[in-house]
Sequence to fold (347 residues):
Amino acid sequence: MKSASTTLRSVDELCDRALVTRERISELSEVAARYAVAITPAVADLIDPSDPLDPIARQFVPDARELQQSPQDRHDPIGDDAFSPVEGVVHRYPDRVLLKVVNACAVYCRFCFRREMVGPGRGGLSPAALAAALDYIRAHPQIWEVILSGGDPLVLSARRLKDVVASLAAIGHVKVIRVHTRMPAVAPERISASLVRALRAREKATFVVLHVNHPRELTKKVRAACARLIDAGIPMLSQSVLLRGVNDDVETLGVLMRSLVECRVKPYYLHHADLAPGTAHLRTTIAEGQAMMRALRGHYSGLCQPAYVLDIPDGHGKSPIGPNYLSEDRTAVEDFQGRQHEYPPRT
Ligand code: SF4
Fold:
């Protein structure tokens, strides 16, 4: 069995670690040839190979169903390409841009919405492309917030990250730098003192948004990694994707949200799964998602409530998708137990 000290990057390595059976190697190699595979030691340790329904395996171990395309699947599900004025920048909303600094990740999620764009060896922005992206941000004073994304920006070395953060912080109108990452959950040892220092910028706010989908991902080491960021003055939020067989039941979702709040990480987004190719088996319906949000609101603290959002295909942006508690004619409001109340009440 392969040691747990290195990232597993091929189906053969997954087989050596007993995460897939020998009979599945051939079909899963076809999946791996199409969509990248990487499972870090921290994630491999969380998978129970004896459980065919393991929710961690479902997120990271390739599945033959990924080769099936549904008619709804889209190569660029959230429409980044249409809003990219220069390489690496997505400028969809007036006051913020995405800066995609790198196209690699520490793990490759089976449901990834950018799965056609990310992978090992895909590289990141060249120095010239990064300079052009920074020039674009400098030239647009309405850009108040820059969201570092990818790939996972925290695959960059602390030194490179520091340079990017410092360059952004030097732009007067950029006040907030937001980093979207899976790294604290999948490789918590990467959240070193130097990496934490690299993320901080004088007189600018840095937020880290942790991508995590199941409460079992929040191990002691992961919680400690989050604490290192938060104790250094970096507020944390979370984003999760609603995934069939991973977190599509209220109890799992509720425990996940509570665990995050206990770690001082505020639940921010629950994404409806995007129409990424080969991911139909992981998607729920919107009605199921709304029912879960309704149950979450009924049973868990307000601190545990993320916004349930959908990225509208073709780049039309993110919208909250309910549930809605106000009646269509705006004369009644539903309470957390599903009872209707006239508003304003007739005295
Ligand atoms: S870490 Fe994010 S960008 Fe990378 S594979 Fe997972 S979902 Fe995609």
The pocket of iron/sulfur cluster is lined by residues 105, 108-109, 112, 114, 118, 150-152, 182, 211 (CB under 6 Å).
